[in-house]
Every structure is written in structure tokens, then in C-alpha cells.
Amino acid sequence: MQMLYDSDTFVVLHMQPDLGQPEKILLSDGKTETPALPRHGFEIVDKRTGKEVYLDGEWAELFQRQIRAWQIESPSEEEVEATLERYASLAQNPVLIH
Predict the structure, then answer these.
(1) What are the pLDDT digits (tens) for 29-57?
(2) Domains in the chain, number
(3) Which of 17, 47, 58, 64 has its CA 20 to 30 A from that of 39?
């Protein structure tokens, strides 16, 4: 887990796959092996509402492209916060422990 952003309003964490996980997993039949898919995602915590949203799959890829664009463009804090606000509008889960 790596903290990417922390402000008075938002926290963004990059959840990276555990590199110690097995390369293969067993399917529900208990006999068939299949490659394990390491996944990563991003957790966006809205400190104002106490809710978080976890982005994985295509949402994570979209957000990762946004982060790359920020690295090139160096946006203002207001621009970053406005983008995070759009993602945070998806938040449904209350933050219980952090």
C-alpha cells in the first residue's frame, strides 16, 4: 500500500498486489490450476463524509491514466480535488478503520 495523496479533504492509496502470492490458484473443483491474477487498485477516502471508494479493474486503469496525466501536467490542488470529488461521488462504504 502506498499513499499517493493526502489533503484536508481526500486521501488516495494505491493498493498493490502482494508479490508473495502464489503464481497459480486452484479452481472450485479443487483440481484445476489457473494463473493467479495480481490486481491493483486505488482507494479514495473522502474525509468530509467518512466514506471511501475502491477502484479496481477498468476503473483503476482509468484512474492510473489520470495520475500519469497529473505527473505530466502538474495540476493545481484545486484541479486534483475537483477530479477526486467526481470519484468520491461514487463512495458508498463508510470508513471503519484506517
Answers:
(1) 777 777 666 678 999 999 999 999 999 88
(2) 1
(3) 47
